[in-house]
Amino acid sequence: MTGCAMSEWPDTDEIYRRLKALIKEPLHPIRRERMQEVLCYFDEKCTRSRALTDKAREYIPGGVQHNLAFNYPFPLAVEKAEGAYLWDVDGNRYIDFLQAGGPIVLGNNYAPVREKVIETLLSSGPVTGLFHEYELKLAELIHRFVPSVEMFRMLGSGTEAVMAAIRAARAFTGKVKVIKAGGAYHGWSDSMVYSLHIPGTRRREATGIPRGASRHTQEFYPHDLGALRRLMQRNRLRGGTAAVILEPVGPESGTRPVPRDFNRQVRQVCDEFGALLILDEVVTGFRLGMGGAQGYFGVTPDLTVFGKCITGGFPMAGGVGGRREVMMRFAAGIGGTGERAYVGGTLSANPLSCVAGVHALLEMERTNAPALAAKAGDRLTRGLEGMIDRLGLPFVAYNQGSIVHLETSGVMLLDLRNPVKLMRELKPRKHMMEEMGAAYMAQGIVTLAGSRMYTSMADTDEVIDDSRDRFETVLSTMEGAG
Ligand SMILES: Cc1ncc(COP(=O)(O)O)c(C=O)c1O
User: Helix (H, G, I), strand (E, B), or coil: what is residue 32?
Assistant: First the structure.
């Protein structure tokens, strides 16, 4: 458990039992009259946000650039971020549990890192295209925290880093198939937009992607080791398995939480079949502890994909690291023998991203931020569990340290093993999640899509207790709340 921040691993059997019970129940949405009040909040208190994002719709498809900003009933425009809070352009304050989708563990706009970035900006400007000492410092630091990363290559995003990892795995093994867990998210590259969110949905979201692009992508039902092994057996006659790629806490940042030993078991299966294990630590890397999820589970992947925390919330967050002989496939330079796995990127490893990464990671180590964030996650989860019990609701709260899940509609737990239920319930359950997101927002809390909360070091006991009161105000307005 090197560098681990989590107090305990959740009892996954118990969570699945409760999640199954949740999706068997009819929906318990917010009472209609209370939902009207939520919509009034947006109409009355968010007028500048509405005007700005309405105007943005003329120039930006859908009105916002970031998937997570597509909020119901309309997106909010943010003006200021500090510590545990965000302020919108109408001056409303929110407790920020979105944390930009995960990269921020020190709290918003953390001054010691910002100051280092400004110093570097003043001396070298944002980018030169030549080597900067901070690239070395970052690679060394990552190696210190995550020893399986013998070498590191910085890229522009988690998506790019996944693409690179897969390319290197194929180049190194000479094999072709890549297997992921159904429902997992590994970015939006052509080959990885496959069975997103809901296992078994394969190319449902692959609009604009030719079939051939995901021909060698395969999925197994989450945590079904037998199914994974059978796929790899079949692949022996079909080009072999280059890699298995996993979100180490389970698909969608642990929305389908992984049994404690699963990563280690997959490591063994990969060894048996000569496939590489790629751990996608875009969310877990440094959030679960300075050693990442691999430190916690005691598993050594061949390659690790990083994103988000690797630049502490600053732009161009992506990188891949791992075994020296695999990583050498990326050796940089112009031209070559055709043997290398090609990667590039004008702004990859720019000095600002690297300096931000180094100082964010050092500050996280110094302040013990992952453990403090996890403690806040525990406190929030215990509070949510208590109110769910008191109110007699079938909802499910659980956390993996600073990743907190609050399932009220259970939409992410539907799957294609029951296609009729999926078709019938997908839309209403999804809409309930949107309403939940809006209701939390109207109570001064920003969540990720109404069902996930990332906590940070800035979430003191006072902040968490304040948020618990706000959550209770919302949950007590649900149909069926006692
Ligand atoms: C597990 C995981 N992998 C990859 C990605 C893609 O990273 P990026 O958004 O930086 O492209 C994400 C993004 O949320 C992620 O959660």
Answer: helix
Instruction: Find the 248 Cα to ligand 1 centroid distance in Å.
Output: 13
214-227 in b/e form (b: 16+ CB < 10 A) is: bebbbbbbbbeeeb
As for ligand 1, residues whose beta carbon falls within 6 Å of it are 101, 157-159, 162, 185-187, 247, 280, 282-283, 307, 317-318
| C-alpha of residue 180 to centroid of ligand 1, in Å | 14
Average pLDDT, the chain: 95
Per cent of the chain over pLDDT 90 is 90
Query: d(Cα 15, Cα 86) in Å, to the nearest integer?
Result: 31
Rounded to 10 degrees, what is the CA torsion of 14, 20, 26, 29?
A: 60
Q: What is the pTM of this model?
A: 0.97
In which band, very low, low, confident or very high, does the pLDDT at 417 lie, cut at 50, 70 and 90? confident
- In this structure, the strands spanning 177-181 and 241-246 are parallel
How big is the chain by its Cα radius of gyration, in Å? 22
* Mean pLDDT value across residues 96-120: 97
Pocket test residue of 282, 306, 316 for ligand 1, highest count of atoms within 8 A of CB: 282
Residues designated catalytic: 185, 280, 308
Instruction: Please give the pLDDT value at position 407.
Output: 97
Query: Residue 243 has what pLDDT?
Result: 98
Give the phi and the psi of residue 462 in degrees, each rounded to 5: -65, -45
